[in-house]
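This part of the workshop introduces the protein records we will be handling. Each record describes a single protein and holds just a pair of labelled lines. Instead of coordinates, the fold is spelled out as a row of discrete tokens. To make this concrete, we reproduce a full record directly below:
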Amino acid sequence: MPQYKLTYFDIRGLGEGARLIFHQAGVKFEDNRLKREDWPALKPKTPFGQLPLLEVDGEVLAQSAAIYRYLGRQFGLAGKTPMEEAQVDSIFDQFRDFMTELRPYFRVLFGFEEGDKEKLLKEVAIPARDKHLPLLEKFLAKSGSGYIVGKSVTWADLVITDSLATWETIVPDFLGGHPQLKKYVEHIRELPNIKKWIAERPKTPY
């Protein structure tokens, strides 16, 4: 069995998707939670000056989506056919567009930048939500299984539902008017390994 080490800050953020994949697969890994004050020393040693990083027997992989895809394929959580794998990639790429559109709002909300939170909520976050959530609903309706693609859980289900659940706690009623997405989030979070990890994981705001 390879030795896995995941390095990220002590928050969920972009590192949590990989943690969820490991836990769903039941695969042990080192969860290296970096302190903010230690980041400047490590940053120039990383491939792109970013976290998360995944080390597999000493080989380093950067970029969160690449890590999710690699782990998903390693652990049988990427779809059952080449077409399903491609559909998972496609849907998650679209979801990343959603995340990118929300970023200006969250950067101000969490104090990383100055700005008008209420204006960004109204003019950026809500329009992005109303644009992208119906797309997710369409794919859920098409699969009819409670999963975004096919008949079994994929890494995209884990990452997408964790993001949606986080956003719902930050922006009240973020999923309002989307009962199927609320049901989807609940369904994935009730998977035994995921439910156990959510109960045990460190409590962080995001």
